Structure formats: C-alpha cells, structure tokens
C-alpha cells in the first residue's frame, strides 16, 4: 500500500496527539496506554493495533513538539520494537500484552551484558525510562534476558534535559527470568534495534525543530519595533528561511529513515543520515529561536530553554552526529 494512502490517518493521529500533549507536558504511562499509543506496533491478536513504525513516528514527532516528559521512548517504542525482533514464544506474547495494556512497564536496555550459567552481568549507561520499570529486557550477544529490577542496580543519571528520565543499569550475576532468542541473526537484530532508536530520536528532534520554527514565526508577527513587525526585517527573514530549510531537509531524511524501519529493511544509512543531520539541525534551530525572541527568549517564561536542552541531549543519545558520520564513512569505504 502506498505511503500516501495513510496520509489522512496520520493527519488525524497527529491532531489527536497534539491536542492531548498540549494539555499536559508530563503524561503518565496509564494515559499513554489509554490513548492506544503503546500498542501501536503490537500485533492486533495480542491487544495492539498491528500498525507500523510509521504511525509510531507520528507520535514521536508530536512528543518532540510538546517537549513532553513521558516513558514512551524506552517502554513502548524501544521495548515494543525489541519484542518484534524476537522469536515467537508465550513469554514474548505476554510481554507484548504488557506493552499494549499495562499496567506494568517494560524497559529495553542496550549495553555490555553477557549471560553465564543462567545469570547476566554487565552495565549500560543513559538508559531511557529504566527507573520504575517492572521488567527490564537486557540485550546480549545471544539473546534478550528478561529480569526484574530486584537484583539490578538502576541509578538515575541527571542530564541537561529535565524532560528525560535516564539511568545507569548494572547487573552483577543477576538471575534471569527468561532468555528470549532473536528471530534472525543476533548481530543484525541488535543493529536494527540501534537503528530504530536513532530514528526515534531523530523524529523527536524533528518535532523540536518544527515547534521552534512555528513559535518563532508566530512571535515575529506580533513583536513590533520601529512601528513594524520585526519579522518584516530582511535579516530576520533570512534567519527564518534558514530554519525552514533545516526543518524541511530534516523532514525528508527522517521520512526516508522511518520508511526503511517500517519496511524492515537495512536502515543503517538512512538512520545515520537522519540522526546526524536532524539532531544537529534541532540544536541550531532552537538556538536561533532563542536569539530571534530577543531578551524574552532567555527567560524561563519563554520555555525555549526546554527545547534547546532537549535538542542538545538528543544530539548525544544513541550515537552523536560524529559517530553517525563515521558509520556512514565506513560503509562507503
């Protein structure tokens, strides 16, 4: 089915998500479940919508636009995506149901973990939404270890972006509930997980940049100097044009990466391009937004600092722009 056939559905999903997130920046897990967002990519036979990453990407962009604080990334997008990479099993199906229906919450953890004699050891840094998760899915070279938080050390890690909840997860010979095997080659599946995570962050950064452009243009229309809107000044127009170009290029790169993930294709190149460009662009656009708002842009009341901090953290999560460009260079050698 052609992508444009989903346009109307995506527009409706975008509108509903925008309205919900506009009411409250902090959205609890129960509200995400009630909205049906956590189960978008869960098979319909297991209580989900049976949708694709294309629909998840719509929600991710709107979350970025609202700079929303919630557990959607780690407990739905990454955990659900990881389960889709595993072999069919009763345990996997039960975990899928957990993602779709709650009330318990999962967390996907990518780090340096090894399994030895039914126990797992290792550590991961800056894990999204690990604090408060009921079960953690630790990715190893041979499969995914399902463990409860008891026995693990889950320590919150303060970051510049206060809308994110990141943590360090340490396992020291922790007993495993279950080990789930990947449906295909473990190395390829692990790479697919990382590509998905990179694209998810790119979607969020696209939302951040788009919202900063919208907010800036709206402000420039009403702020007057010398008897005219400051948006009418040539230098300001040029700055806004640069912001628009950055957002539109980001949108195209993100769309290609989302399509690759949705089609279960090799998304490595598209993900690296989208992540590196979009996350840098979001920082630049948010910085320009702060400048173009003038003095008020540097105040807490404007809220622009929230978006700038989120863009700055997104730039580092799941591979910095430099690391992504290095991956691209290695592919083309």
Automatic annotation (TrEMBL):
Gene Ontology molecular functions: acyl-CoA dehydrogenase activity; flavin adenine dinucleotide binding
Top-level enzyme category: oxidoreductase
SUPFAM superfamilies assigned to the protein according to its UniProt record, in alphabetical order: Acyl-CoA dehydrogenase C-terminal domain-like (SSF47203), Acyl-CoA dehydrogenase NM domain-like (SSF56645)
Residue intervals of the Acyl-CoA dehydrogenase/oxidase N-terminal domain: 23-75
EC number per UniProt: 1.3.1.108
Cofactor requirements of the protein: FAD
Keywords annotated in UniProt: FAD, Flavoprotein, Oxidoreductase
Domain of life: Bacteria
Domain annotation Acyl-CoA dehydrogenase/oxidase C-terminal: ranges: 195-331
Entries under InterPro entries matching the protein: AcylCo_DH-like_C, AcylCo_DH/oxidase_C, AcylCoA_DH/ox_N, AcylCoA_DH/ox_N_sf, AcylCoA_DH/oxidase_NM_dom_sf
Family: Belongs to the acyl-CoA dehydrogenase family.
Xref: PANTHER family: ACYL-COA DEHYDROGENASE, ACYL-COA DEHYDROGENASE FADE28
Record's protein name: Caffeyl-CoA reductase-Etf complex subunit CarC
Species the sequence originates in: Mycolicibacterium vanbaalenii (Mycobacterium vanbaalenii)
């Amino acid at each position: 089915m052609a992508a444009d056939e989903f346009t109307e559905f995506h527009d409706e999903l975008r509108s509903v998500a925008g309205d919900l997130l506009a009411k409250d920046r902090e959205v609890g897990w129960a509200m995400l479940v009630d909205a049906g967002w956590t189960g978008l990519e869960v098979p319909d036979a297991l209580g989900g919508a049976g949708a694709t990453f294309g629909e998840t990407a719509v929600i991710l962009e709107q979350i970025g636009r609202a700079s929303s604080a919630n557990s959607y990334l780690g407990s739905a997008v990454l955990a659900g995506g990881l389960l889709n990479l595993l072999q069919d099993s009763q345990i996997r199906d039960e975990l899928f149901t957990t993602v779709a229906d709650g009330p318990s919450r999962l967390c996907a953890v990518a780090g340096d973990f090894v399994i030895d004699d039914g126990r797992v050891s290792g550590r991961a840094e800056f894990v999204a939404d690990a604090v408060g998760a009921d079960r953690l899915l630790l990715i190893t070279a041979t499969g995914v270890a399902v463990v409860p938080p008891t026995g693990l050390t889950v320590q919150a890690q303060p970051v510049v972006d206060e809308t994110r909840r990141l943590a360090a997860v340490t396992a020291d010979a922790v007993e495993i509930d279950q080990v789930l095997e990947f449906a295909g080659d473990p190395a390829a599946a692990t790479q697919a997980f990382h590509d998905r995570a990179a694209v998810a962050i790119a979607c969020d950064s696209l939302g951040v940049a788009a919202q900063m452009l919208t907010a800036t243009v709206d402000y420039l229309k009403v702020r007057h100097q010398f008897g005219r809107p400051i948006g009418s000044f040539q230098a300001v127009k040029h700055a806004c044009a640069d912001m628009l170009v950055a957002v539109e290029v980001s949108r195209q790169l993100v769309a290609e990466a989302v399509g690759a993930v949705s089609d279960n294709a090799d998304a490595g190149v598209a993900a690296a391009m989208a992540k590196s460009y979009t996350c840098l662009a979001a920082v630049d656009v948010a910085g320009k937004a702060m400048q173009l708002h003038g003095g008020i842009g540097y105040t807490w009341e404007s809220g622009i600092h929230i978006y700038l901090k989120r863009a700055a953290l997104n730039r580092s999560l799941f591979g910095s722009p430099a690391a992504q460009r290095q991956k691209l260079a290695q592919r083309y050698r």
